Amino acid sequence: MHLTQQLELFPEYTVTQLLFKDVKNAADLRKKAISGEIIGALINPSMVVDPFQVLLATNKALHLQKAGKMKTRSLFSEIIFNLSPTNNISEAFKNFGISDSDRAVQVVLVHADGERNNMDDIQSKVDGQQIPVHRVSSLSNIAKIKKLYKVTPQEELCGSLLDAVVCRMATKDVL
């Protein structure tokens, strides 16, 4: 159901992704994340094409944290920000963070070796059905993703939507 991966560049860190649908308490979850009761990133899965997209954002966020160059206040807000193709933090939260009315949520947890994984704690707080993370594309809003990332039909002829999204995420700081 969940997906746990060790980061190649930071092998002492593990990333766990969980995916829930039919969520009834998104507003409560959002409040708990803001207050620090939930230690993880809460992402709107309708804007995610593939779990790799989230893994990339997490890896970049951890790298920026280690380098002391984060643009947001926490690792988890940096993950949400790094999913965005733009450098506008409030737009990133609007597009990729969860809202009170959302019915699905993707949770990202990051823990170092020896730290307790709070996956059970998160699962107990979410009032919804957990589904396998690799099914995130079933919740994706492809039209909205293409519009936000400005993916052209020509671009899709030579690569996948995931390729285009990852390219935008990786190069937003250089453009």
UniProtKB/TrEMBL annotation:
Q: Which InterPro entries match?
A: CGI121/TPRKB, CGI121/TPRKB_sf
Q: Which GO terms describe its biological process?
A: tRNA threonylcarbamoyladenosine modification
Tell me which GO cellular component terms the UniProt record holds: cytosol; EKC/KEOPS complex; nucleus
Q: Where in the cell is it found?
A: Cytoplasm, Cytosol; Nucleus
The main location class comes to cytoplasm
Residues folding into a coiled coil are none
**Keyword annotations for this protein?**
Cytoplasm, Nucleus, tRNA processing
Q: Which domain of life is it from?
A: Eukaryota
Kindly give the Pfam families that the UniProt entry links to this protein. CGI-121
> What Gene3D superfamilies would the database entry show?
CGI121/TPRKB
Q: Which family does it belong to?
A: Belongs to the CGI121/TPRKB family.
User: PANTHER family in the record, alphabetically?
Assistant: CGI-121 FAMILY MEMBER (PTHR15840), EKC_KEOPS COMPLEX SUBUNIT TPRKB (PTHR15840:SF10)
Q: What is this protein called?
A: EKC/KEOPS complex subunit TPRKB
UniProt source species: Conger conger (Conger eel)
